[in-house]
Phytocyanin domain-containing protein
Amino acid sequence: MESLRKMLVVLMTMVVTVRMVNASLVYVGGGKETWRPNVNFSEWSARQNIHAGDWLYFGFDKKLYNVLEVNKTGYEGCHDVGFIKNITRGGRDVFQVNEAKTYYFINGGGSCFGGMKVAINVENPQPAPSPSQLTGVKSIKNGSPSRFGGLVATLMAVLTSVLLAWAIL
């Protein structure tokens, strides 16, 4: 019974490891502070390949703007009442897209009418990378390589190794 429990822990850790290594951080609008007016979010969104499990990063001045997840009707009409979720926390906010669908985000308070809204099409998750693909992973989807992705991969590999050793011993 004990060995079955250990193997289950190892298996769950490996699944989480693969999912975390495969996830990316996507800067909405292309930069660290681009949730603002005068950004063509439709054009930006059309160029993205975002997958379930990825994280969206919204950077903005929290005194001026916010980020609301809405449905398609709320998006099209810029309705900030009855939103699905307010993801605003501090102006450097992340949101994980967990399923393949179109996500809709707007800025409440009228800026939506000036273009502060984005529809993001999320695709099914990418297949897990092979170990040889993990070296030099570009984990931030604005074209910049990230040390974060490599660090996560390394830490998760170490954690998995420790748990495997624990399960075997």
